């Protein structure tokens, strides 16, 4: 579970709720079904137009990545690569075949399998870079979806408010009821802005962070396996791969 995502949403929503209650507000007044349906349903509908059904169906998976994804420690990847490079120097690249079962990362396993198969360096780099690029395209679709949700949500909130005001102002016989209806009309705007800034946009940025971490890890793996294939000294490979890490995190 990603504590930053969970904690950030709880803190943001909690601050709004506490401030609203301290001002004497009633939570039942802002949890009406009609503005929620209009804003959330309308936002998803508008965002669906901008992408594909496949991407929309992946929303639960994207949410899982944002809330439960784990950060990748590049130092662990470097250590695995160095261990493999030491073995390759002793036994040759064919000796790495017995280590394939212990590699869980599909990209890492594919890269090691390619060097075991004797793939030429230029072709090896081309295959791995191509896979990284297509991964980036897949990730970009999910990120763009949440950015679109964040862009449409406030607008749908305003539409809901306008519809509420039309309904409120169409009946002027009872001033007290009209005032209540006008106040209720702005609930849609609250939901539109709130969902955009506390849910859609933050999750989109979290997905981008996850993508950047994974892309950096895959680039690290690419450089590492190419170093193994080239027969570079394990110490040289470690020094080269450490350049992927912030200097203050290179120890330990």
Task: Explain how this protein is built.
With 252 residues, the protein is mainly α. It has one domain (3-73, 124-249). The protein is built from ten helices and no strands. It has helices at residues 3-22, 33-49, 53-57, 59-68, 74-91, 106-116, 121-169, 175-185, 187-229, 234-241. Helix 5 (74-91) packs parallel to helix 9 (187-229) and helix 7 packs antiparallel against helix 8. The longest helix has 49 residues, at 121-169. The two termini are 24 Å apart. The mean pLDDT is 89.
Mean pLDDT: 89
Share of β-strand residues: under 5%
Radius of gyration, in Å, reads 26 Å
Shape: elongated
When the domains are counted, the total is 1
Jot down its keywords.
76% helix; 10 helices; elongated; 252 residues
Task: Offer a quick outline of the entry.
The chain is mainly alpha-helical. The chain contains ten helices and no strands.
Summarize the topology.
Blueprint: H1 3-22, H2 33-49, H3 53-57, H4 59-68, H5 74-91, H6 106-116, H7 121-169, H8 175-185, H9 187-229, H10 234-241
